[in-house]
Design brief:
PTS sugar transporter subunit IIA, globular, about 170 residues, about 35% helix, 5-stranded mixed sheet, sugar transport, 5 strands, alpha/beta, transport, single chain
């Protein structure tokens, strides 16, 4: 009997986004290590297809996702064809790792500027339009130093998932 592909879960109602993975205090040598770790967890859980990790890394090399927010964050993603379960994977890093700055910011040597990222918010989208409001709200959260600090202060994976869910739902006290 041939292996079956995981069935996609029903879409989340418009404007909402599920937390499909939360990792608190992830230890990573660099951005690629962090992304490979997240991708491996997502693949193990059936949230993404084979090839997601390679596509994610290639996209990050071509189009860096580090945001120069008050507390630098990264929003890496891959094409929808690799996503089985839409939502958001989120990770706090034990130590900052350098992500290239989105938009091609360069340093004085012409190299892509690296930002010391401690929070990764990875949208897993099958249709960005269906989650437009949630993505807009996510960007507002990432620009708010106090809200990002709440996420960074999460005690463990469960606490991080709960805090992220509450912040994305618009609850003030996450």
């Amino acid at each position: 009997m041939p292996p079956t592909e995981p069935r996609p879960e029903p879409p989340v109602p418009e404007g909402e986004i599920d937390i499909v993975l939360a990792l608190s205090g992830l230890r990573a040598a660099d951005a690629e290590d962090a992304l490979r770790t997240l991708a491996a967890h997502l693949l193990d859980e059936g949230s993404v297809a084979e090839g997601f990790s390679a596509a994610l890394l290639e996209r990050e090399r071509s189009y860096p996702t580090g945001l120069p927010t008050p507390l630098p964050t990264a929003i890496p993603h891959a094409d929808p064809e690799f996503v089985h379960r839409p939502g958001l994977a989120i990770a706090t890093l034990a130590e900052p790792v350098g992500f290239g700055e989105m938009g091609g910011g360069t340093d004085e040597d012409g190299q892509v500027r690296r930002l010391p990222v401690r929070l990764i918010a990875m949208p897993l989208l099958t249709d960005a339009r269906a989650h437009l409001r949630a993505l807009q709200h996510l960007m507002a959260v990432l620009r708010d130093e106090a809200q990002v600090t709440r996420l960074l202060d999460a005690a463990d994976d469960t606490d991080l998932a709960g805090r992220a869910s509450r912040l994305l739902a618009g609850e003030e006290d996450a």
